[in-house]
Amino acid sequence: MVTSALAVGLAAAGTTAQAAAGTAASQYQAKIIGGHRSTEHYSFIVSLQAPRGDDPDGHGCGGTLIAPDWVLTAGHCVTTAEGVEAPGTFHARIGSLDRTRGGEVARVKRIVVHPGYRYADERGSAHDLALLQLSSKVSAKPAPLASRTPRAGETVRATGWGYTEATGNDPSRLPVEHREVDLPVLAPDTPKCVSHGTDGDAWGIREGDFCTDNPDGAAGTCGGDSGAPALTKAHGRWQLSGVTSRSVGDCASTPDIYPSVAAHRAWIRTTTG
Fold first, then answer.
1. Residue 12 predicted with pLDDT over 70
2. Which residues does the annotation mark as catalytic?
3. Sequence-separated (6 or more) residues with CB below 8 Å from residue 230
């Protein structure tokens, strides 16, 4: 199954690491495959949720708390072909490794999608980012923003609540506990970061993105991981370096693509004040 968009739900070929079925990003998919349950607490992690069926707290995408009342996620998590979803559709569970309980819960009151992002269900876009303003400030500690894009040969930690098997498309089987996997960064001009044998460059790297490899051809992100943080460490502290967007082709066996936080830092700072 090709899953270039990494949301929860059945993705089209060349999917983004998107949201759960029944939410705005239902055509995308993403998951942590080849990783493990998180072994440390991340105060800033977010499960972006919306009602789905009988579940009022259906997980759709990940996100990162970057200020007391702002969350950064992927643009495709909150948009459709018709435009930006209504903010009231979503709420955020913040700071809990268990997406069903704990942490702090806040409604979303405003959504700002990066002006350079263009929604398309058959192709990934550059600048796949959105900022969500919460209805109230929370007490959890936000993630610091990285000041530079990860370089080839470095390692980033991909995180999320996405499916743990490449065949996953049933939201009831999403892991409840937060997961993570460490992935090596590739040079942006690496051919497999640019295109895929089936989908060409539809889901490849764009301006402002970085790309990670898949150790042993069986590790990476897929359904439900869209919007979740890609982390690096600086001075012993985790910082937000990227936002999970999509896979170039088959999830966990082709490179994963992330908008660089450093490359979009000016927009983030201007929007959040």
1. no
2. 76, 128, 226
3. 150, 156, 157, 158, 159, 212, 240, 241, 242, 243, 244, 258
